[in-house]
Specification:
The structure is a single chain. The protein contains 18 helices and 47 strands. Strands 13, 16, 17, 20, 21, 22, 23 and 24 form an 8-stranded antiparallel sheet that branches. A 6-stranded mixed sheet has the order 10-27-26-25-11-12, sandwiched between helices. A hairpin with a 5-residue loop joins strand 16 and strand 17. It is globular. The termini are far apart.
Length: 945
């Protein structure tokens, strides 16, 4: 007898289509195995030879959390490059490092949670650093480039599987898991969905992550938009991964469901395929899923749908075809090419905001580099650990020579004196190893503990001089002479132990609170005050020490000395990405912290040739009037200092452009929770004030002229061309921007809207001929009356130039479009949320599953207007569908109230709707006005004849 090898299972057959292989493997899994796959950490199925799998490898601007890796500029800095081709190369390098790191550490995952495509609607959002732009078109262009780099260019196998964050309308950290973003249909379609849609349609996205917040009263983790919109944009199976802890929030903080079984079932049915909750412990989520199955809230078919989507991603990643996976042997990590790319990206991200001729610096310039960030290379929560490091000071030393560079950090030098007359003392930590936070990598860096191997602070007669920095609003850091920050570990003792402020809960920040003739020192991470005990300095709930703050040197004094000895001063100011504006914490102001304002004034007072270099994750409101030059860059990663020095020296002409509006004052900003960019006139699209610096702004060391603008409509597109010529003396990049606007408005439209752009490199005297093909759909808007996109007929102006406000050329095209139609209200009625105008209204969930309703904000009074409602030959009655308690008043064209429809008693719950009727006589086309009073939900208005 001849022994025959067992037949190969179809899911192992690389010749079969992925869909058939997925179905075969799915059919071999037991219900318990399927259930176990739905947690972030899916276990191995040894009987089938299927390996364990986890979703979620952070890779926003480099491989994060898993130890040393190439660190590129923050995402907002990549957005400032306005260079999709560069960003694609960054994504390519990051995905190769993911593969190389995974080959040595199987904790590194291939399902990468990046990029973030939330629009930078509000500059006080704590996570501004994670997004690309306030504009949907620019955001999608950069995100598409990054995802294509992450995916790789093989037609079948993906190098990594990118997941877009955070679905949807998510721009606040304040109460982020309980606040609801009220998003009217036009804002939803024209703004918040667009960046996701265009990126998904580009074909290199494996999934999305819902955000913590609610939209229109419904948590994003049970959003009907996942099926109604997201999954209609592609034929690929998209894997929807929950945000960490969000499944539990549905019950614990949002109280949207009574039980975790109900919440988990609703999320799965809505489209969440992988649950990120309770860290690596999957038992609680599995228990909830099994409970939902037992209660009939889920079926095995629901499990199959979610598992199929996960398996689809795993097959695309080559997991089951290692011999065919072209990425399996990838080993490119920290290569010379990646280091050069990190520097190139940092250079391209620098934006020159103002220049009166002081830049570029002459070769023999004596430079003073001063400020709290002058010798820093800051990382954020989603950074890897630095292998290479370049600060502005180091970059200028390298470029100009240490003998020509003066330095002053500008910290306040202080001693803390106790009530007993002793001073805080930092003991020498002999033999202690130097440790960098996160260097070993961690699946969840929030769990990393502070160091306890170093001695706690004590007191003595002389004490230790500490470097004090006030990062704004009284939030302080204190640093010992050896560079370590004062920090508090789990045992409560204060030590000089941290290389930088950081962690999920920052343990390196303090606040001085006036108390009698001295101050209490409050540790912000624990909320406790510092006390002096016999066994060392610690934080405790009682017996706080009263300190006298003894200042031995003000930072302004050191800055003034350095500035006086230089030809030009570079003040490097900005933020620490872990303090006052980060995930979990929004900013409260656009202003630069007062300590940094003082340093800037001190430098300027002794040396008028003072350049301000802002290194920050977000915009500031600064007064540039007396400054000869101002630059901005996001935290630029490992090559940030070298890049800044090369731009200051003129080795590179700056060509970054602002990816969001820089407002002049806090008064220009809408409320943080006001998501109506149209009604509140937000972003460059609608803002009618004068910005400090406009969207798209950025200067160059060269000059450019624009000419020859032509535009014609045809073939389903508008064809635009113009030329750009470098009329300067140096080779430089120019970012040519093309905007459009509707001339004749029937509804509020953007003042101008980015249609496309091109970053080009031009030698002196060289000309680039640029051509753009803009689809007609780009000129449309979402017509709430028709519940669809529509291009209005009429004139559209095209504007070409160097920013949204620096327009050099104009042309007009006329498009046929579709004429407006009145609302067919007799046949369709009025969906309550489909209003044209409103006041005092917020949108809420009609049911827990789908649909929108409206309610007066604060349960007071709200008004709604629905334009051009066609009553035909006449109607005689109106019906409203409402829940709660209150009344609806109806009038036409702003005239007298024609009907008042009131509930006789509160409905049992917010989703228990009743119908109220009244007589109304009307014919022809009118504007319908509704006034809502009381805690009432209105879902629909119907008319009958």
């Amino acid at each position: 007898m001849t022994a025959h090898p067992p037949p190969t299972a179809p899911f192992r057959d690389p010749q079969l289509p992925f869909a058939k292989r997925v179905d075969d493997l799915l059919g071999r899994l037991t219900p318990d195995e399927k259930t176990s796959f739905l947690h972030q950490f899916a276990p191995a199925v040894e009987r089938l030879g299927v390996a364990a799998f986890r979703t979620g490898q952070e890779a926003l601007h480099g491989v994060a959390w898993m130890g040393p890796a190439t660190v590129f500029p923050q995402a907002v800095g990549l957005g400032a490059t306005w260079n999709p081709e560069l960003v694609r190369r960054v994504g390519d390098a990051v995905s190769k490092e993911v593969r190389a790191m995974r080959a040595k550490d199987d904790r590194v995952g291939l399902n990468v949670w990046a990029p973030t495509v939330n629009l930078l609607r509000h500059p006080l959002w704590g996570r501004n650093e994670e997004g690309y732009s306030e504009d949907p078109k620019l955001t999608s262009a950069i995100a598409t480039a990054y995802t294509h780099g992450l995916r790789g260019d093989h037609p079948t196998y993906w190098r990594t599987a990118p997941v877009l964050k955070h679905w949807l309308a998510h721009n606040n950290e304040t109460d982020r898991s309980t606040t609801s973003s009220s998003v009217r249909p036009r804002v939803l379609h024209e703004y918040d969905l667009r960046a996701f849609r265009e990126t998904v349609e580009a074909g290199a996205v494996a999934g999305v992550m819902p955000a913590y917040n609610l939209v229109n009263g419904r948590p994003n983790h049970v959003s009907p938009y996942l099926s109604e919109h997201l999954r209609t944009w592609t034929d690929e199976d998209l894997l929807v991964c929950s945000d960490a802890g969000a499944p539990s929030n549905l019950v614990d903080s949002e109280h949207y469901f009574d039980t975790h079984e109900e919440a988990t079932a609703a999320s799965l049915v809505a489209g969440v395929d992988s649950f990120t909750d309770h860290g690596t412990d999957s038992s609680q989520m599995i228990g909830r899923l099994r409970g939902a199955l037992e209660r009939g809230l889920l079926t095995e078919a629901d499990l199959d749908t979610a598992v199929r989507r996960q398996l689809s991603v795993r097959f695309r990643l080559g997991e089951f075809d290692p011999e065919y996976d072209p990425h399996d042997a990838t080993c490119e990590f920290d290569t010379p090419a990646h280091r050069a790319l990190a520097r190139e990206a940092a250079e391209q991200a620098i934006v020159l905001l103002r220049n009166d001729g002081v830049l570029p610096l002459a070769p023999e310039t004596r430079v003073a580099v001063v400020g709290l960030l002058a010798d820093e290379c800051k990382l954020d929560w989603y950074s890897g650990t630095l292998i290479h490091r370049s600060t502005p000071l180091e970059g200028l030393y390298e470029r100009f020579g240490a003998e020509r560079v003066e330095f002053a950090e500008g910290v306040d030098r202080v001693r803390l004196k106790t009530a007993a007359g002793a001073f805080l003392h930092v003991p020498v930590a002999e033999g202690a190893a130097a440790e960098v936070r996160g260097a070993e990598g961690a699946l969840d860096p929030a769990l990393l503990a502070g160091r306890t191997d170093l001695p706690a602070l004590t007191t003595d007669a002389t004490g230790t001089e500490l470097a004090l920095v006030d990062w704004g609003e009284g939030v302080l850091t204190l640093r010992a002479p050896d560079g370590r920050y004062l920090s508090v570990a789990e045992d409560g003792y204060v030590r000089a132990s941290a290389d930088q402020p950081g962690g999920w809960v920052v343990q390196e920040t303090f606040r001085l609170e006036p108390h009698g003739n001295g101050h209490l020192l409050k540790h912000l991470g624990t909320g406790r005050h510092v006390c002096v005990a016999a066994d060392g300095v610690k934080v405790a709930d009682e017996d706080p020490e009263v300190f006298d703050l003894v200042v031995t040197e003000r930072g302004e004094e050191a800055v003034a000395r350095a500035a006086a000895a230089a030809d030009v001063v570079v003040v490097v100011a900005g933020n620490d990405p872990h303090i006052n504006g980060r995930e979990t914490e929004d900013r409260t102001t656009l202003r630069l912290p007062e300590q940094q304002e003082r340093l800037l004034r001190a430098a300027r007072a002794v040396n008028p040739a003072t350049v301000l270099a802002l290194v920050s994750a977000y915009p500031y409101a600064v007064d540039p009037a007396e400054l000869p030059a101002v630059l901005w860059t996001a935290h630029g990663g490992q090559a940030a200092g070298t890049a800044l020095a090369r731009v200051l020296a003129g080795d590179v002409s700056p060509a970054g452009r602002l990816p969001q509006t820089w407002y002049a004052d806090d008064a220009d900003l809408p409320g943080l929770l006001d998501y109506d960019v149209i009604g509140s006139r937000q972003t460059y699209l609608y803002f009618e004030g004068t910005p400090l610096f406009p969207f798209g702004h950025g200067l160059s060391y060269a000059s450019f002229t624009y000419g020859g603008l032509t535009a014609r409509a045809g073939g389903g597109a508008v064809h635009v061309s113009f030329s750009v010529t470098n009329t300067g003396d140096v080779t430089a990049d120019e970012v040519a921007q093309l905007y459009g606007r509707a001339v004749d408005l029937s509804v509020p439209r953007p003042r101008r809207e980015l249609l496309d752009h091109r970053r080009v490199t031009l030698a002196p005297g060289a000309t680039a001929e640029l051509a753009f093909e803009i689809p007609l759909s780009a000129f449309g808007f979402f017509d709430v009356a028709q519940d669809r996109w529509r291009v209005e007929p009429g004139a559209y102006e095209l504007l070409a130039g160097a920013s949204s406000e620096d327009v050099r050329l104009r042309a007009t095209v006329t498009l046929d479009g579709e004429p407006a139609l009145p609302r067919a209200v007799v046949a369709n009625g009025l969906p309550a949320a489909g209003f044209d105008e409103y006041s005092g209204i917020e949108i809420v969930d009609r049911t827990k599953v789908s649909g929108d309703a409206v309610t007066p904000a604060g349960q007071a009074t709200g008004e709604l207007v629905y334009r051009a409602c066609d009553f035909g030959r006449g109607i005689s009655g109106v019906t409203v569908e409402v829940a709660g308690e209150g009344s609806v008043e109806l009038s036409l064209d702003g005239g007298p109230v024609l009907a008042v429809l009131s509930t006789t008693a509160p409905t049992p719950g917010p989703y228990d709707y009743v119908l109220l009727d009244a007589s109304v006589v009307a014919a022809g086309v009118h504007d319908v006005h509704l006034r809502l009073r009381g805690p009432l939900r209105l879902a629909h208005v119907g008319f009958s004849g």
